[in-house]
Amino acid sequence: MGGDQYGWLRAAVSRFGEACKDKLSGGGGPEAAIRGPLEVLLRVVSECHEQHRVSWHDEYPLPDLGVRPDYAVSVNGKISGYVELKRPGLPVDPENFGRGSREQWHKLRGLPNLLYSNGTEWRLFRGGRQVGEPVYFAGSLHGAGGKLAVPDPLAFDLLLQQFLDWHPEPIRHVARLVQEIARLCRLLRAAVQEQLRSESRSSAPDDDVRARPFTGLKNDWRRYLFPSADDATFADGFAQTVTFSLLLAHTEGIPLAPDSLHEIGRRLDDGHALMGKALQLLTDNVNARFTVTLDLLTRTVAQVDWPAVRSGNRDAYLHLYEHFLTVYDPALRQKSGSYYTPREVVGEMIRLTEDVLRTRLDREHGFADEDVRIVDPAMGTGTFLHTVSERVAEQAAERHGPAMTRDAVQRLASRLGGLPRWYADPAQGRRADDVEFPTADKRRIQYVSHIGGTLPEQIRHDAEAETLYIGGGAFTPVSEAVWTYDVGGMPIVKKWFGYRKASPNSKKTSPLDDIHVDAWPAEWTEELIELLSVLRRLTDLEPSQDALLTAVLVGPVVTEGELRAAGVLPVPPAARKARHPALDGLFPDV
Predict the structure, then answer these.
(1) DSSP symbol at 446
(2) Which of 5, 115, 229, 484 is most buried, taking the most CB atoms under 10 A from its CB?
(3) Cα–Cα distance between 34 and 17 in angstroms, integer?
(4) Distances from the Cα of 72 to the Cαs of 40, 68, 82, 589, in angstroms?
(5) For residues 408 and 396, what is the distance between their CA atoms, to the nearest angstrom?
């Protein structure tokens, strides 16, 4: 019965063998010779499964990847997969590729639906991972002719059905969300880097939008946002901004459709101006060049079921970016310091801190008290500040009803602050508010020549002399690391000066913005010295911080089994309830 069921497929493979033998015996390129028979074979399979709107587009260019697979396959008018055909006898297993095929594979591997074949061996890949087992034909294309056979027709039929039936599936779990968007974000980043390399070989001027659209975009990115960004940094920033703008748009209920990025950005602009404008700026002139990658990304993000993602993981938003970086670029994750603290640990730390506020510092309303300021000096994914906000909102609802939640959080917002990195150094014997180095310390900033009576317009740095020049003024020692220190790609010293120079960089929104000082205030000089001192302390601490992080990562960990053995897990239900302030205080006097 099994043979009868797949008799049509056995016959199709036999005819494929006959056609290949005839084509290969006539000379010409062996890969080109099997193209026609391959199209006929695949069309037979699609027709058998009533997929009548399947089209094969040969030598389909993917300019965003800098590669041209042998076929793009469209089903019902939408590109759904790609076929890379090798001449008979060549391997289609990436582990055995030669140099040329390996380079091509690295460009194609990010595609979500890719079929490799040499006519007798068939492998299906999705996102660089092989799906199922390879399927082999019995016989040689050069000599088998009509005797070419498929030993396992069921496996071959299922493989081709998987290939032809591909479409983005609903994403309901954080793990799969991270895997999918990280893979496509990497694909987009690689496409941008390839485009920049291509444009660098062009003789057209940088501002030629048609010939060098990404060069101009990169230059604008440097001019307005991150002056020190190189090509790799720009490509990474582009890819992540587009990816997370689409995710944000989807959470806001904005329809995601291919070729609609400008409209998505416009609608996103209503509530998230920065991300909306960024999406428009980054994609308005480059959509046509990145059609495949942007289409795949948009279609995939549109399949994210946010309610399901959150129902399975309450912390989904909080640790999404940390998990994303782990898959997307582990080195970038470590460099940015994006590490997530579990909600249970954060919750206990927040509760204990609020107990101290109430029982020891006489702040009856805890974090909701108007005198309490909350600053996270290394906020990472923002878990602590988010948990404080949730706690204040819950307490407001308990005291005054659910309508009070929004007002309570709005009042809290002005008292919340977060920094990417901040260090204090009490071991040096200085006051907590004193950031300068001791007088005898060679690192102490010296103001060696006066800035002058007028506002300066220029700032520059002499790396060899370790001297910072502002107008006629000079400050030393200022290391290259201090001068180039950035947060999220923003150079701190240049940014600080940009708001204070004769022609400030700040955006003008009213006539009041034209009001500016006439001379350099002495307070600015003191502020600059403190800023340079803080940056020097930060750069000096980086080696020890890196060493500490390395030691932590390679050190022993507490396992779930050990926590259970110690009685810490499972957490009893009573421990999850908010505690009432102790009548005698958390730390009674002895």
Answers:
(1) E
(2) 115
(3) 9
(4) 15, 9, 4, 76
(5) 6
Q: What is the pLDDT of residues 289-311, one digit of tens each?
A: 567 678 878 888 888 888 888 77
Identify the DSSP state of 519.
S
Q: How far is CA 145 from CA 85, 135, 547, in A?
A: 19, 19, 65
Burial grade of 521 (CB within 10 A; 0-12, 13-18, 19 or more):
exposed
What are the angstrom distances between the C-alpha of 400 and each of 386, 394, 422? 21, 10, 37
Dihedral angle sign, alpha carbons of residues 281, 283, 284, 286: positive
Q: Is the alpha carbon torsion for 341, 347, 351, 357 positive or negative? A: positive
Distance, CA of 43 to CA of 49 (rounded, Å): 10
Q: What pairs with residue 375 in β-bridges?
A: 417
End-to-end, the C-alpha distance of the chain in Å comes to 88
Distance CA 175, CA 313 (A): 10
β partners of residue 124: 115
Q: In the chain, how long is the greatest CA-to-CA distance?
A: 100
What is the residue type of 184? L
For residue 4, what pLDDT is reported? 61
Full-model pTM: 0.52
**CA atoms within a 13 Å half-sphere pointing along the CA-CB vector of 572:** 4
174-200 helix and 291-301 helix, angle to the nearest 10 degrees: 160
Decide if 228 contacts 495 (C-beta within 8 A): no
Contact partners, residue 47, CB within 8 Å, separation at least 6: none
Alpha-carbon gap, residue 573 to 590, rounded angstroms: 32
CA angle at 375 for the pair 370 and 381, rounded to the nearest 5°: 125
Of 131-140, 202-211, 421-430, minimum mean pLDDT range: 421-430
What is residue 169's DSSP assignment? P
Show the tokens assigned to 289. Answer: 């060049």
Per the rule left: phi > 0, alpha: psi between -120 and 50, beta: everything else, 127 is left
Residues facing residue 58 across a β-bridge: 71
Which helix (DSSP H) or strand (DSSP E) does residue 231 occupy?
helix 231-251
Torsion of CA 535, 537, 543, 546, to 10 degrees: -80
Residue 86's pLDDT is what? 92
CA distances from 102 to 107, 173, 359 (A): 9, 33, 66
pLDDT for res 359: 87
Which phi-psi region, left, alpha or beta, contains residue 466 (left: φ > 0; alpha: ψ -120 to 50)? left
The three-point CA angle 38-39-40 to 5° equals: 90
3-state secondary structure of 542: helix
* Strand, helix or coil for residue 468: strand
Report whether pLDDT(573) > 80: no
213 contact partners, CB below 8 Å, separation of at least 6: 199, 285, 286, 289
Give how far Cα 202 sits from Cα of 51, 196, 199, 207, 211, Å: 44, 10, 5, 12, 8
Closest by CA to 82, choosing from 55, 106, 53, 113, is: 113
pLDDT per residue as tens digits for the range 208-248: 767 777 787 788 777 766 666 778 888 888 888 888 888 88
Secondary structure (3-state) at 430: coil
Tokens 């495949």 sit at which residue? 292
Count CB-CB contacts under 10 A for residue 513: 11
